[in-house]
Sequence to fold (601 residues):
Amino acid sequence: MSEAPPARAVATAGHVDHGKSSLVRALTGQDPDRFAEERRRGLTIDLGFAHTVLPSGREVGFVDVPGHVRFIGNMLAGVGAVDVAVLVVAATDGWMPQSEEHLRILGLVGARHGMVAVTKAGLVDTDTLELALLEVEERLAGTALEGAPVVTCDSRSGEGIADVRTTLDAVLASAPPPRADGRVRLWADRVFAAPGAGTIVTGTLTGGALAAGDVVAVEPAGLTGRVRGVETHRRRRDRGWPGSRVAVNLAGVDHRALRRGHALVTPGAWLLTSTVDVRLTGVDVDALPRRGTVHLHVGSGSHRVRLRVLPHDADLAAPAFARIHLPVPLPLAPGDRMVVRDAGRQVTLGGAEVLDVAPTARAAEAARNLGRSPGERLLASHGWIAAEELERLGGRARPDMEALLTGAGAVRVGTHFVDPDVVDRLLDSARAAVAEHRRAHPHEPGLPLPELATAHGITVEAMRTALARASDLTVAGGVVAPASPRASASETPAGRDLLAALEASPFNPPDPDDIGLAKALAREGVAVEVGGTFFSAGAVDTARSLVRHALRERGSLTVAEARDLFGTTRKYTLPLLARLDAEGVTRRHGDERRAGPAAGT
Fold:
């Protein structure tokens, strides 16, 4: 018997009184309205929750959002972490203002998968229903749900409900799996105390699995708690999985210290930031409030923030970039989507995508780097990037970040990834300092390495590694001095031995004991350095040939397939592929490599 697919969270969306809650009740047999006032008035005020099992065996948890414009903040709290939605449009009313705003919000938060349910079909004649369907099709054009399946149904009679279930099942089956990089983040949409259990936090889990015994940080509260247990759809689970609704029983944290908009995260895995640079999406810059104070909806929370549109060159194409100052530090990463609203006028101004969570450039100069690729942007913004900070700054798993930076031209200097121009400027400065020291102290062997490193604000190890790239400087006995003329590295006994070792294990090369020697071999063209790893030139030639042949046969190549092709590990496969990307032999397309302009025939 095949295992059921993992549970997924799905949000409803649509205008007030178009039947979102009734549809959820018809699909699940559960009433998502949690408050007596909601049932009495027939109006959803806050988020509601229900769940069911679809024909494939997949569990689905619905986040039912209010449709009234007065409760748009609650609606945003429900869709911030959900990437699949059911847009509900009543056949009796057709397209309405909140149909438009909710659909726009789905696009702004990054929900790219879903379906449309045209409800109350049993209350209209055939012509009216047909007009409603045509209008829906027109309104979806050019939006996040363009091409999404549209199903007619009637929640009271049950007509079409089975079609909604099977269509939603198909949508979830075709949607990409949730991101799972081991960095948990759960934006809390409910916090309460349960008798006999204590603090309960609910939300849609992203980033990684969560299990009993795990320690989590609660931000921006600055608290730490331990997970007592996890439930999904009111059942105790061994662990909660990304993309699903979870209720977390949290020990060590009083529920009164938490609120909607707080996040449970993996301790130390996220950068807490109160200033971010963003790309504005769908924003009319001229419509922004004059003083730049807006409401920013992030995850399940809302914050009053200062937003400054960044000045840019006249020839810089749209979109506009902005710097946002948050009132509290939040666990954010590049790629996070947010919604910008004018609370006073009750209008959605547009969206924002986080590009840089730790801006270093002055606001007047920041825009020139924000339009670059992620790797180039990081290098331009930070210059030196510690390997341990890659995930926090870049928002992706460390191997992916290393490949990203290598592809952008970064070089490895000790435990840092560095823009080669920064290294060149460092070496020019080091040469000048060494020359000045020799002039001032002609009888000393050289400038002490620690003194040189301190003067440039980097570690001794980083300076030593950087100096290995300079053929005219040498490090010996803890001092830096001009290098004497020397023979070709490949003609020395040590050079011949290292080259033989690289050639003996072409795709699992040993780490050279003498980095300077290895770099000398690379400068002579008999070895190749890729992101701090050294291969023989013949190994790169063989890898190029193997990949070209594989691409002709298969059309594309994953990292795992390339790893098997080379008979090596991911550690060496990624830099080899990065080298072939840089040569144009391959071109990255999602998680695959395809033939590039230099792939040949």
Q: What stands out?
A: The radius of gyration is 29 Å. The mean pLDDT is 88. The chain has five domains: 8-174, 185-265, 271-371, 419-485, 490-595. The CA atoms of residues 587 and 596 lie 5 Å apart.
